[in-house]
Design goal:
It contains three helices and eight strands; from the N terminus they run H-E-E-H-E-E-E-E-E-H-E. By secondary structure, the protein is α+β, with helices and mostly antiparallel strands. The chain has one domain: Peptide deformylase (Peptide Deformylase, Alpha-Beta Complex), CATH 3.90.45. Strands 1-2-3-6-7 form a five-stranded antiparallel β-sheet. A three-stranded antiparallel β-sheet has the order 4-5-8. 34% of the residues are buried. The structure holds zinc ion.
Length: 173
């Protein structure tokens, strides 16, 4: 079910999110939370990823839209059949020394964009809804998304580290 997106100023965005515990994996409650995140993301204009604190739930979870993951996996980006991918208890286990500048926005900081320097490439380890571990290596946009979302789980917003943040009339991201 679609949930309201929490915006900058709400304390939940500044909390360190709690890990999902072993007994939560495979439960209907966890699946329902992933569905809520996906449903909320789908109606957010230009939304590509969302972290659980952004719907007010302080848990270490983020969800990436299927078409973004598909691009990386070289599937047809137009395909609607690729489902969103949930990352539970995610950790960056490798980050390239090579950096890249990204123009970034955030669903929780509407109308504000900024330039931020992040690693060009990262490897993320996480668990799926059943608790099974998996690992994804990504560069460019997907690496940026992973770093942005994991920052959310640490209580960090992109505006904390952006070189220049600017307001625009465009409220899409
Ligand atoms: Zn964000």
């Amino acid at each position: 079910m679609e949930k309201p997106i929490v915006t900058d100023g709400d304390a939940v965005l500044r909390d360190k999110a709690q890990p999902v515990s072993e007994k939560e994996f495979g439960t209907d409650e966890l699946q329902a939370l992933l569905t809520d995140l996906s449903d909320t993301l789908r109606v957010a204009p230009n939304g590509v990823a969302i972290a659980a604190p952004q719907i007010g739930v302080s848990k270490q979870i983020f969800v990436v839209r299927g078409f973004i993951m598909a691009e990386r996996m070289r599937h047809d980006p137009e395909s609607d059949s690729i489902t969103d991918v949930a990352f539970i208890n995610p950790k960056i286990v490798r980050a390239s020394r090579k950096k890249e500048r990204f123009d970034e926005g955030c669903l929780s900081v509407p109308g504000v964009y900024g330039t931020i320097v992040r690693s060009h490439q990262v490897t993320v380890q996480a668990q799926d809804v059943t608790g099974t571990p998996f690992e994804v290596n990504a560069a460019g946009l997907l690496a940026e998304i992973f770093q942005h979302e994991i920052d959310h789980l640490e209580g960090v917003l992109f505006i904390d580290n952006a070189e220049e943040a600017y307001k625009t009339e465009n409220h899409e991201a």
